[in-house]
From TrEMBL:
It holds the Pfam family Adenyl_cycl_N. It comes from Halopseudomonas salina. InterPro entries: Adenylate_cyclase_1, Adenylate_cyclase_1_N. Residues 20-216 form the Adenylate cyclase class-I N-terminal domain. This is Adenylate cyclase. The gene is cyaA. The lineage of its organism: Bacteria, Pseudomonadati, Pseudomonadota, Gammaproteobacteria, Pseudomonadales.
Amino acid sequence: MALSGEIQPQIAEGIDRKALTTLRNRFTGINRSRLQRVLQALPARQYNVLQVIPLLFDVNHPLLPGYVSRSTPHGLASYVPDSNVLQVAQALTRSFSYRRHPAGFTGDIQSLYLMGSGGTIAQSDQSDLDIWVCHAPHLAAGAIAELAAKCQLITDWAATQSCEAHFHLVNPATFSLGDRDNALSVEDCGSTQHYLLLDEFYRTAILLGGRYPLWWLVPDYEEKHYADFTRQLIEKRFIRAQESLDLGHMARIPAGEYVGAGLWQLFKGIESPYKSVLKLLLTEVYASEHPEVRCLSLDFKHAVYANHLDLDELDPYVMLYRRIERYLLKRQETERLELVRRCLYIKADVRLSRRTGTLGWKRSLMEKLVREWHWDTRQLQQMDNRQVWRVGEVTRERQQLVSELTHSYRFLSQFGRSNGVINQVNSRDLSLLGRRLYAAFERKAGKIEVINPGIAPDLSEPLLTLAQRTSGEPEQSSWHLYRGTLSQPELTDHAPLKYTRHLVELLAWAHRNGLVDAATRIAVHPGDSALSEFELSNLLASLRQHFPQPLPVLTETALSRPSQPCQALLLVNVGLDPLPVTSQKNVHLISSHTDALGYSGLRDNLILSIDQVTLNSWNELQVGRFEGEQACIQALCDYLNKAHEHQHRPDLQVVCFCRNRSSAIAERVEQLFQDATRQLLAEPPSRFLLQVQNSFQVLERKEGLIDITRLPDRERLMRYLGSGRTSYSALALDRFALQGHDTALMLQQARGGEIQVFYRLLPDRQAEISVLDELGALWRIRQACRDEQTLLLPLLRFLHSIRLRRQINQSLELSLREEPLSLYAIRPAAEGLPLRLEAQRVPGQGIETDYYAVQAIAEPGDDQSLKVSIFCGQKEFSELDHGADLFSAAARHILNQRAGTEDYPCYITDLDLSAVDPAGNMQTVHYLRYRQRLEDALNAAMGIARS
């Protein structure tokens, strides 16, 4: 075989040692040239760091970076530092003097390799140093821990030299078997991608010192017989075992690795798509050729054996591009190919339209590729100006990148399932990735679209114009954002960067995508709105304060659960003036009614709109708007429904910067949300009564959702409060509801299972008496009052009789329990102070005194009406005897029994409804209501009888 040309060693025929030496020299020559390219690209301090790293692992000097203890593993196989390296070491510590290791010392470090983009067209100023530290397999756990500590100390020292270096410990013996459990860090691509990682290693790794890869000496056509070939190389002493490092072969790649690698690259691509698209496409190429895939590392080795040693064509990223190019041209997917070219150009970080300090070889190589692509000057300038790309360019680029990432996700899913390699682990990963893609790129109503996933470094604008514009009817108005400072007439000549129906959505979009920062100046054309520069400035400041960019990193834990709201910002009355008339006249209303939902004597609702900006656990920013008189209630219900659905209350902030009473409005809304949340999300939940202007609304949780009962006036409210219920449900009052009214005092005293009686003496010998029954229903009546005793005793006797009747249907133990009954007087307070409740002692005597008893018994009739019988003392009056004159007859009898001529009402002291309610479940309020009807009829008849 010719040493100057292609080498094809055959183990069966015997291998020429000179051929092996030539092959080794070819690989080491390429390695040396790549290392030289790496060093050329590094600044002086980073250059010195990379130069001295092999020495730091070879020696264990206490004054050099990385020293842990005297027993720390060290000694790099076959390494001898040159004079340049020793000069760098002596600059670190003058006392250092290099001494060669004694004869027989094998060393604990077998090899150091620089991995990744170093020495390739993709190396840039931002590239870090990823170094594999291949140590002796026999090291104990304690020694490995010390070696890891040494690596960390060197990393820390490198950082002080403005150099980012990462070290990964590798045990060659276990690595070659696919076991990396205690090898690479969690920052790598995961333990399920052994062969694809090895493929990348063999085509990109640069040997810094130590043993060369045994893989170099195995021809690509012998890869399937790797173990036998390498065994014979060593056993027949073609090479010495201690000179090489065996990390394994590239004979096959399991199908599952393509899924794992693709998932990893997709994960990274969501934030930095340019870095991932190339590797995603390579994964797709490999997967499409499975199982007869020929990986790039084998192409690289084949080229070296064939003596094709053009360093530019062997550049790992050029080889990667060539492979993808052939694949996409064959599929006629030219748009995807153009995206790949842009990704490579950006990865190379050259600017061919400018004369820069780019390395000569790198610039020449990129110019050659660009000529092949037929890029013109304009396209080069656009790519070189990526640092100043704005919304238009970024949006167009985003569309293609998102399309590519989505395509890769679908391809991986289909490939994995068709090859039966979707196991429980990567099935979960696929689902998590699908959620991550959905959160990052899926469009949905109200969601703020992120247009810059790592495309341009900065989209901020120094000058912007914000304008409200109308098309036809006022309700068709929209908000537009323009670049630069424009006058009103100039707006029609410029295309907006973005326009939305509502202002907050536009501001949230500008904030989320970084168009607006604290230094941005915005010209405002408010149109018909009341937006001021003061309000706009504060709105943007609130968005920056509550949703600072960048958002927190989205964790796997968060994605494994359904998304839930985390933070909610309510912006009240954006661009609206709740009191426009007073603003125009520069006057202020003076009133005791300061509630924003019922302000001044006119009871104005000052809350005209609420914009809700929510950040959820998947980092999705969503905007919703509520308008009109019901804006506050709708926003409240939406907040409560979501909080209950997710069993999580998002952090809530309320701001308002409108022209009138902004602080009071914000405080009122925040208090209302806090109070309603406390009542309606409690277990069990309470009902919540609030007053909006002169109407009332009761919020109640039914089957998880908030149900609203609207009551347009006080009369309807009283009907609602008096309606029967199937079970007790506490009714909590908003702090401004029924302010100054005795009804509020009574409702606040309600307790389930207890009957409460309230009375209030009025002028002209009148009184108002109310009862809250055991299920919280309210009954009220106004009547003549001679004194408190005659007012209360008939009612208390009636309530006592109802309790006795209920006990009949209860067990003996329950019947012995006293049903709680409370009595309160509503007293007038001093002038300017509210009414107050005064607890009264329930009379211990008189309730069961044998006064003249009037009992009524109701039974169902044939026509579904109730038939009534009245017992006055022991005398019965029934409809069967008296027909329509029943009440007249009973009234005359009662009047005849009275000794004096004083005029006072007749009271029903007992009511039997057992025929109507056999189980005895009827509410007290029902008894009271029916009793009142009977008393009204009886007293009316008595009035006629007197006349």
